[in-house]
């Protein structure tokens, strides 16, 4: 445990019970244990539970446990069942869940007549391509949005407890209705997963020569295609209506571009393609940047020899030049003995960074002004 972690006390008090010891559940456990919170773990899989406990995400449950907060972190198709069981088993506890779909489990529970006064749905917008307790990290939620879904029956103290959990984990709580949440993640998470998977599927039968040409663009747009199919079938099925809405609109846009390219010399065809790219520019510009700001940065691409210490030297010399690295991407070309460091800097720092690095012998492969 680091001194910086121990320097602050947890906002959450009492025992926290986590049902589901996979990536999210175990990561929550690690973060709370770092704040000396008593964490109880439960999981339908004995081996998964034992592994999470061995890694230090929490302890095994006892008969006298009386948790103040229960976090349900199980697959979407059993989320409602587990919430119902936990509400019944622990009548004094507030129950939340971290499922990526909020309306479906809420509606299921309402149809069953379950008293949802002590239930508050929530969803941390965080994750990794790899799952399970072995991939869990205490810092998984730091700086990430954490949606909290309240309704007219939600008690202020219960809401504060769930928001305190998010804050203890370093996340940023945001209040939304279940409907607002599901429509939002359909656009920003669920459809991107489908698009990335479909694009990556084109690579499965691609010629080896074509794959050798793969650059950072195709890697960026297919990164999340490595996600687990079993989980995503559940997520997409539970949020089908909003996802279909976005997919249908996207399919229409794709059809418009493909129709334009069938006859690129036809009147207006080039404009239709240009407008599609331009609208994409406008959408990207609306995405929050560093620290949630809409501030844009300039790009600087530096060639870095593939030898130990070179990247550290580059950062050090940028620091000497007074240039802050706002973001970084690394790209390696097959067979090449160097990489390309795509560095984001403040616009005012671009020219000084280029001149200063070139004076120190670095090779600049490109920049925003090229």
From TrEMBL:
CDD domains: ACT
UniProt protein name: Prephenate dehydrogenase
Gene3D superfamilies xrefs: 6-phosphogluconate dehydrogenase C-terminal like domain (1.10.3660.10), NAD(P)-binding Rossmann-like Domain (3.40.50.720)
Family: Belongs to the prephenate/arogenate dehydrogenase family.
Keyword Iron-sulfur: no
Organism field: Microbacterium suwonense
All residue ranges annotated as the Prephenate/arogenate dehydrogenase domain in the record: 14-291
Taxonomic lineage of the native organism: Bacteria, Bacillati, Actinomycetota, Actinomycetes, Micrococcales
Record keywords: Amino-acid biosynthesis, Aromatic amino acid biosynthesis, Oxidoreductase
Entries under InterPro entries matching the protein: 6-PGluconate_DH-like_C_sf (IPR008927), ACT-like_dom_sf (IPR045865), NAD(P)-bd_dom_sf (IPR036291), PDH_C (IPR046825), PDH_N (IPR046826), Preph/Arog_dehydrog (IPR050812), Prephen_DH (IPR003099)
Superkingdom as given in the UniProt entry: Bacteria
